[in-house]
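Bumping my old thread because nobody answered last time. Still need a sequence for this structure:
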């Protein structure tokens, strides 16, 4: 420690405290900093806990500042250590073990904890909050043993917990006291749309329900409500709200109301002791959202470093959230009343909703659902109390040419507007970094400012800011290697493979100068795919460069068994095939047979050694449910049976599935074909969605119903089946040749641009036919993997009767 420096102690190692520290480090080196955290982890992103719960990210993935960061800045970190009080007389903080540490200045950033309803039975086993990694771990373990869960609370945390538990295979019911979800952020219309979307994702709801008692013995077994109805469950997550953690302040004699009371510079009633974040109360308000805590931290950092700053006047509360893949936004007043003028637009096809409220023609509030492109502009206008005009109406209510989303206008964003909500990075910070540090890529901005390093949802806006600042000098995707083993981009690698005639992943790595001779789990599958895409007739697929599901031609489950999904073209099967599936399921003790979202049957729980026998006895094509390939073509019954059907969707779905199955693609790929615009097969969330009408077909591309949900964009309309098949083939081949490995079409469309794709596959007929010829050539080289595996007895013995296989390449 440097004795000449002031000793700054941070009580709390969460997002608010460490964000403040990051701001302090930018302004001054005058402090010797010590941080205390109760949890055994470095600073991590609580916003991302739901991703850890559902399994798409690990704890390491959500760490914001790893242990090396603390070391690099000379910060002393005490994890697993709880500070109980601050001794102002001796200027020391005191830990639960009685250890004392001196301070010149201290910042309390203890955050908040889950509020547990004080109903009878709340202390039973199987009742947990959802606030930290420990809660996540309890929920992950519970999902392995129990099947029915209730989440009490229909706010953001409750809905994220519900989505995570559904992803873990639990049957989940959200219990909410009010009739509308997220009633503090959304109006009834947006709430209804959100509920409908989450129901499609498998979440159940019990609305207007007051919890009276948790039933059971030592462990919870049910919930009794105020109307005496009962919900049978074996696990409960309490997500009814948060309470500020004020214990340290109370025991230190600091003024506390609901939170720790501070002035406009975040000073508590104790000299040289400050408070920031969810534990804090400013002008009677405790904030539970991310943006205010970052605003508080920036002002506190300047004040504590002696830099001139405006005082904190409170935050204009707005909510911009992604709930289970659905974007929602609200700001200002969002519940309309007779005194409001209401401007609203609802699109059931795109599942979007926009509402703006006026009072005496002044904009006072807004709600967005599904498409939040205009959130920054609306927030600025409402903050400025802008008067509505015809010109302004045309601007804020427009969805862009042809019904496509218009790009967010970064020019109109205020410099202090937060772009990266996970890390509190403003537009001004990004602009300054680009200008002062000479940054030219999103990765460089991420390393310098922290923007995009968490959920990545702000990446498109960050890239727009980069383009806005650099102008003609901007090049999308510059200096972004495909992984840490190489600085080469996807396009550079593909070009060099073609130029040098490289044929294997090892050859690519050796010739192109990989830093890791064996590569990694990111680059090896990618190179294997690029080689196969470039030379489908000569490339020998490298199974060791594929993930376990693709090597085994089946999806591995958490208990080590596998699923088998045979093809059912267009979701149609025969009684004979159904009987065969049932007989084999009984013979091989299949644990469950599930109807999938793609209209097929999933045989769950097949032992590894039984996989070849199941494939042989089924004698059906592989459904590729495990592959980065065409998964399913979902169809409605169409004109064959439906009184509304205008096109034969079942026949077209089966034709497309038979034609394009088995071909390797950058990521999994799904179709849907509707016989009419009623959209029963849900074309709006598929990679290619096809909608029949009286004059032919309309093609939509880039839809995604996963974690990052996206509604498909309308590409074009065609009159004949032949045109439809040719365009679908051209789209798929263009995607194969230009997408990054693992890049879904939803991301590809946004990166490449809809107009550019339309120019290549629709407008340029010559190029379209060339793309179709190339995909036809590639299709000639593929064969059914189950039949191929059955012919290879040596491979069978190695894979299905040998040692356990690694999940990664």
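Sorry it took so long. Here it is:
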């Amino acid at each position: 420690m440097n004795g000449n420096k002031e000793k700054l102690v941070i009580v709390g190692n969460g997002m608010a405290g460490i964000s403040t520290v990051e701001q302090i480090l930018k302004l001054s080196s005058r402090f010797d900093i010590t941080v205390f955290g109760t949890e055994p982890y470095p600073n991590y992103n609580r916003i991302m806990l739901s991703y850890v719960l559902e399994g798409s990210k690990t704890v390491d993935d959500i760490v914001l500042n790893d242990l090396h960061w603390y070391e690099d800045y000379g910060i002393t970190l005490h994890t697993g250590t709880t500070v109980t009080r601050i001794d102002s007389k001796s200027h020391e903080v005191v830990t639960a073990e009685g250890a004392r540490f001196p301070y010149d200045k201290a910042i309390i950033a203890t955050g908040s904890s889950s509020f547990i309803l004080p109903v009878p039975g709340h202390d039973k086993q199987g009742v947990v909050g959802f606030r930290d990694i420990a809660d996540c771990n309890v929920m992950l373990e519970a999902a392995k043993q129990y099947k029915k869960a209730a989440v009490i609370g229909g706010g953001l945390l409750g809905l994220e917990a519900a989505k995570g538990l559904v992803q873990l295979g639990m049957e989940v019911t959200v219990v909410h006291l009010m009739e509308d979800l997220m009633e503090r952020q959304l109006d009834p219309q947006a709430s209804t749309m959100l509920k409908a979307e989450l129901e499609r994702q498998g979440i159940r709801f019990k609305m207007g329900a007051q919890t009276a008692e948790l039933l059971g013995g030592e462990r919870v077994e049910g919930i009794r409500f105020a109307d005496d109805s009962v919900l049978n469950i074996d696990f409960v997550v309490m997500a009814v709200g948060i309470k500020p953690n004020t214990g340290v302040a109370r025991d230190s004699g600091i003024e506390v109301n609901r939170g720790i009371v501070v002035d406009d510079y975040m000073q508590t009633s104790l000299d040289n002791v400050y408070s920031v974040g969810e534990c804090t109360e400013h002008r009677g308000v405790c904030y539970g959202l991310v943006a205010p805590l970052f605003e508080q931290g920036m002002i506190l950092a300047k004040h504590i470093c002696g830099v001139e700053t405006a005082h904190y006047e409170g935050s204009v509360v707005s909510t911009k959230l992604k709930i289970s893949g659905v974007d929602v936004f609200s700001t200002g007043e969002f519940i309309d009343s007779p005194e409001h003028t209401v401007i609203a637009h609802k699109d059931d096809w795109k599942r979007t909703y926009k509402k703006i409220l006026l009072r005496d023609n002044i904009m006072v509030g807004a709600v967005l659902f599904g498409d939040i492109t205009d959130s920054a502009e609306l927030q600025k206008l409402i903050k400025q109390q802008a008067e509505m005009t015809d010109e302004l109406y045309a601007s804020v209510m427009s969805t862009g040419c042809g019904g496509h989303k218009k790009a967010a206008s970064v020019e109109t964003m205020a410099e202090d507007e937060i772009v990266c909500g996970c890390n509190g990075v403003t537009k001004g910070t990004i602009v300054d970094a680009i200008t002062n540090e000479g940054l030219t890529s999103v990765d460089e901005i991420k390393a310098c400012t922290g923007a995009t390093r968490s959920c990545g949802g702000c990446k498109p806006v960050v890239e727009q800011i980069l383009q806005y600042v650099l102008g003609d000098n901007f090049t999308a995707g510059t200096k972004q290697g495909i992984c840490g083993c190489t600085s080469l981009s996807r396009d550079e690698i593909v070009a060099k493979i073609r130029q040098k005639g490289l044929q294997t992943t090892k050859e690519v790595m050796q010739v192109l100068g990989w830093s890791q001779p064996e590569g990694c789990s990111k680059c090896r599958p990618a190179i294997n795919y690029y080689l196969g895409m470039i030379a489908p007739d000569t490339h020998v697929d490298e199974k060791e460069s594929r993930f376990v599901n693709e090597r085994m031609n089946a999806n591995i489950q958490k208990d080590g068994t596998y699923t088998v999904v045979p093809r059912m073209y267009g979701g149609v099967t025969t009684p004979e095939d159904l009987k065969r599936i049932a007989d084999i399921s009984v013979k091989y003790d299949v644990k469950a047979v599930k109807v999938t979202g793609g209209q097929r049957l999933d045989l769950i729980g097949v032992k590894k050694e039984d996989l070849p026998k199941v494939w042989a006895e089924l004698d059906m094509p592989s459904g590729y449910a495990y592959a980065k390939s065409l998964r399913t073509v979902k169809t409605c019954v169409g004109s064959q049976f439906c009184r509304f059907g205008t096109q034969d969707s079942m026949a077209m779905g089966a034709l497309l599935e038979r034609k394009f199955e088995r071909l390797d693609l950058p990521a999994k790929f799904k179709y849907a074909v509707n016989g009419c615009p009623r959209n029963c097969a849900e074309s709006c969330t598929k990679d290619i969605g096809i909608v029949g009408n009286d004059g032919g077909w309309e093609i939509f591309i880039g839809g995604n119903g996963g974690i990052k949900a996206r509604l498909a964009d309308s590409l074009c309309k065609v009159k004949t089946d032949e045109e439809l098949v040719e365009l679908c083939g051209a789209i798929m081949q263009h995607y194969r040749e230009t997408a990054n490995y693992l890049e879904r079409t939803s991301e590809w469309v946004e990166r490449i641009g809809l107009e550019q794709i339309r120019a290549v596959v629709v407008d340029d007929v010559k190029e379209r036919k060339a793309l179709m010829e190339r995909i036809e050539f590639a299709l000639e080289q593929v064969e059914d993997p189950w039949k191929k595996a059955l012919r290879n007895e040596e491979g069978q013995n190695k894979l299905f009767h040998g040692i356990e296989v690694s999940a990664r390449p």
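DSSP finds 27 helices and 38 strands in the chain. Let me know if any region looks off to you.
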